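Annotated sample (chain length 114).
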Amino acid sequence: MGHLVKIGIDGIEPEPGAPAADRLVSGNPQFRTWNAEEADGGLYAGIWEATPGKWQIVYDEWEFCHILSGRSIVTEEGGDPHHLGAGDSFVLRPGFRGTWEVLETTRKEYVIRL
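Output written by the structure step:
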């Protein structure tokens, strides 16, 4: 195994998912996750996609995100909404609480550190 891992969906079976029922705010969002890297110490990288809907999010981990396509709104409790689309990058820090609303199916690259 080499030291360079390409982040993509080719050859990786997506893991299906959805928000937990008690976090769902509206719609019927469905997730697909292509994990390209899982390293010792709780490091993950890959691609995630969600269909329209809105749900509550709570982060105990650190996550870097880069939106590849779609449109979403991420709002921290007590904060202003952040309208996100293709080309936008951001970090969600441990302790983040709020909502994620997918307006148009959204695909992102991510790196998570537990």
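Annotation: DSSP finds no helices and nine strands in the chain.
Annotation: The chain has a mean pLDDT of 97.
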